[in-house]
Design a protein that fits this description.
Elements lengths: L8 H11 L4 E2 L17 H11 L4 E11 L5 E10 L5 E2 L14 E4 L4 H7 L6 E4 L25
Antiparallel strand pairs: 1-5, 2-3, 2-5, 3-4, 3-6
């Protein structure tokens, strides 16, 4: 249960959307661990595996632009990237078409790891900027249907 946050769901979404104005694409870095290579659409597991073997790195959870609905209207989804020992962020998860990467603006999650995990319960959390554009919190395949903000105080 999340009790330390006073944000409503819409306020949190608006905070992420507001941060997009200053967000930048995180550069892709091709990595491998022996025969293992990060898989498309498995960013959280990819990053977890990478930092397990590279303890000088840390996981950075957040939100990445995944769709455009016209000028100033985008969809964002949960995403994980790596923070290297030099403090720079890099993305180890490949995408189907790397030409999309410049538009994949990343906003770090403003809470702790537990709240991020709660937010992406199921297949992940996606919402739109501006909030409400497409009735945010649409069901996602595998989603439990539980509102991750239900325990947050307004």
């Amino acid at each position: 249960m999340i009790t330390s946050c006073a944000l409503t769901r819409r306020q949190y979404e608006q905070q992420v959307c507001d941060c997009l104005a200053n967000a930048q694409a995180v550069p892709f870095r091709q990595v491998a661990l022996g025969a293992w290579k990060p898989e498309i659409a498995d960013c959280h597991a990819n990053v977890d595996r990478w930092i397990e073997v590279n303890p000088e790195c840390t996981a950075v959870r957040g939100w990445v632009v995944c769709a455009s609905y016209g000028e100033g209207m985008v969809g964002v989804t949960a995403h994980s990237v790596v923070k290297g020992s030099d403090g720079h962020l890099y993305d180890i998860t490949p995408v189907n078409d790397e030409r999309m990467r410049p538009g994949m603006l990343f906003v770090p999650h403003s809470g702790d790891e537990a709240s991020f995990i709660q937010l992406r319960t199921g297949a992940g959390l996606s919402f739109t900027c501006p909030p409400g554009l497409l009735d945010n919190m649409q069901p996602i395949s595998g989603d439990t249907g539980r509102d991750p903000f239900a325990d947050w105080e307004p």
